[in-house]
Write a structure and sequence with these properties.
The structure is a single chain. By secondary structure, the protein is mainly β. It has strands at residues 3-7, 10-13, 18-25, 33-39, 46-51, 62-64, 72-77, 82-87, 96-103, 117-118, 122-127. Helix content is 0%, strand content 48%. Strand 7 (72-77) and strand 8 form a beta hairpin. It is globular, with a radius of gyration of 14 Å.
């Protein structure tokens, strides 16, 4: 199993930037897909970004939701067992609780149902 803990959320003005971090423990971090999701009040949890694991030769492949592509960047430091989400040009509609997640049995994954382990979430609030 793997344990995940997010940090870096906060309040930022529209147009600003934030970097979220997700520290992992319990498993070798780079071998499986990892991703970021978010959930706004009254809405379902939605995919934000994912990065593939090292198995099957798909290391480093990145996927983004259309709503964040070009503004958000996902990255992973396997030596530090940490996943990042750099968010720029933030908009009020980006306000949500952001979760990092791991799909332990998959090298690529973009659907909520594919992810097995979840962090507790970190709040991001973007003011207009």
């Amino acid at each position: 199993q793997v344990q995940l803990a997010e940090s870096g959320g906060g309040l930022v003005q529209a147009g600003g930037s934030l970097r979220l971090s997700c520290a992992a423990s319990g498993r070798t971090f780079g071998s499986f897909a990892t991703g970021w999701f978010r959930q706004a009040p009254g809405k379902e949890r939605e995919f934000v970004a994912a990065i593939s694991g090292s198995l099957g030769g798909s290391l480093g492949f990145k996927a983004y939701a259309a709503t964040v592509k070009g503004r958000f960047t996902i990255s992973r430091d396997n030596a530090k067992n940490t996943l990042y989400l750099q968010m720029s040009s933030l908009k009020p509609e980006d306000t949500a609780v952001y979760y990092c997640a791991a799909a332990l049995g998959k090298t690529t994954a973009t659907m909520t149902s594919e992810y097995d382990a979840w962090g507790q979430g970190t709040q991001v609030t973007v003011s207009s």
